[in-house]
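Quick one, T. Sequence first:
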Amino acid sequence: MLDKVQIIHEDEEAKFAVIPYEDYLQIRDLLEDEEKLEDYLDYLHAQKVKYETQSRHTLQAVKESLGLDEA
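C-alpha cells:
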C-alpha cells in the first residue's frame, strides 16, 4: 500500500500526496475498523522486527524456552 504515491510540491515544499483510488479505499476501510487497523499495525510491526532481527530460532528451541517441551 502507498507504493504508488505522487507528491505535489509548491515552492519546493511537499503539499499534497495523490494515491490510487483503490489504495484510498483500503486505507479508509482500515481506519473505519479498529480490529482491521490493529491487525495491520501488528503485521507492520512483525515485518519490521523480521527485517531488523538477523537471528532465527528453531521450533524446538522456542518450545524449550517456553517450557512446552514434550520430552
